[in-house]
Amino acid sequence: MARARTYRGEATRLVDRLSGRGIRRVTAHASIHHHPFFFVPAYDRAMRRLIFVSHRTGAPQIFFEDRASGDLVQATDCADLAEWSIYPSADGRFVYFTAGTGAWRVDLGSLAEEQLADFGDAEMRERGMVGAAMGTTALSASGDWWAVPVRVGTLTRFILIDTRRKSSTIILERDTLGHPQFCPDDEDLILYAGPLTDRVWVTDRSGARNRRLYARTDKWQWVTHEVWMPGARAIAFVDWPHGMRRVDVDDGSVRVLTQFPAWHAAPDSAGTRLVCDTNFPDRGLHILSLATPSTATQDRFLCASEATSEGAHWGGRFPYNDGPVAVEARQHTHPHPRFSPDNSRIVFTSDRDGHAQIYEIELAGIDA
User: Fold this and answer.
1) What pLDDT sits at residue 297?
2) What is the distance between the alpha carbons of residues 168 and 183, in angstroms, rounded to a whole number?
3) Which of 110, 135, 303, 338 has the fewest CB atoms within 10 Å around its CB?
4) Residue 314's beta-bridge partner residues?
5) Helix/strand/coil for 133
6) Span 3-19, average pLDDT
7) What 3-state DSSP class applies to 49?
8) pTM for the predicted model, two decimal places
9) Number of CB atoms found within 10 A of residue 264's CB
10) Rounded to the nearest 5 degrees, what angle is found at the Cα of 225, between the Cα atoms of 293 and 215?
């Protein structure tokens, strides 16, 4: 296991059995691979590298595919990488991640690792496989600010790291806090998920303007998988399994985006389309057009995911009214599709062949 080891490219071309579209499989090793979570970019802005996690060395490590050569490069060599914490910077220079009780980044040019914060005696994440237990983090569009939830005892501390000064401060303490995301249009706005019964919250970087943005309409409404809509100062979220809604940050207005049963859905860079996976039943990956405000949003089938998509709890009513429940939902079994920065392709994960691998589908010929 050695940082900077380079593997020959493993990409192969496939044809989706249902749509007939070409798919590129990026990885092939008989081990777990996955790209970052669905609201985290998998590429730098210039599309020089595709960032992913591979378990091929026996432990999760950050890798990237060099787009020019097709080679796969191991970028980290640490024993305790939190694999869902990774966040590539838009300029392509760094990938940020947590490991053990520290906050780190790796320089993708030199592959030097640098520690930015030490959280001391912390659990780091809640127990489980979903939500706050995943340990996702958030990097601002400029790369100047990195937000990291840290579990300490019965509370979660929301820690803001200044990546230039390499300093950190606690801006909030809460009962639970997960899936942070900086607004792409305002770096003083951070979305995060509160308790499973009270999900959609926003704060500023100081933590002083912390507020609930959306409250459930009843105890059975299942609000999940929030994501910022670029150019709109608005947040889209899944109203599982009935479709998606959008809430405006400034006036609090809420409207239905689509009645299509999206599971994980992420926007393109213009905020005019969403790509989503599906579950119960798995209907594959789809693009949803948001060009016209309609509850009958036109969807375009992209391809079959053929992922196992673990999580039997998704097949029933909202299960968390009486507190957390243990679920078997290994996240690398979920597709988590996401547009590339130039909107030319979509990256997703599938364990269709027995091991989770990275796939891309090119969008040439598919109308915006």
Assistant:
1) 59
2) 20
3) 110
4) none
5) helix
6) 93
7) strand
8) 0.96
9) 24
10) 75
**78 and 85 Cβ atoms separated by less than 8 Å:** no
User: Residue 293: which pLDDT band, with cuts at 50, 70 and 90?
Assistant: low
Compute how many other C-beta atoms are within 10 angstroms of the C-beta atom of residue 112. Answer: 10
Q: Rounded to an integer, what distance in angstroms lies between the CA atom of residue 6 and that of residue 22?
A: 27
CA within 13 Å, CB half, 171: 27
Instruction: Read off φ and ψ for residue 312, nearest 5 degrees.
Output: -60, -25
Within a 10 A sphere around the Cβ of 58, how many other Cβ atoms? 9
pLDDT of residue 368: 47
Expressed in angstroms, the distance from the first to the final Cα of the chain is: 43
SS3 116: strand
Q: Which domains does the chain have, with CATH numbers?
A: 6-316+329-362 (2.130.10.10)
**Token pair listed for 72:** 């796969």
Yes or no: say if 188 and 175 are a contact pair by the CB < 8 Å rule.
Answer: no
Cα–Cα distance measured from residue 150 to residue 132, given in angstroms and rounded to the nearest whole number: 10
DSSP assignment string, 158-213: EEEEETTTTEEEEEEEES--EEEEEETTEEEEEEEE--TTS-EEEE-TTSTT-EE-
- Within the chain, what is the greatest distance between any pair of CA atoms? 53
Strand pairing report for 186-193 and 200-203: antiparallel
Residue 292: predicted pLDDT: 62
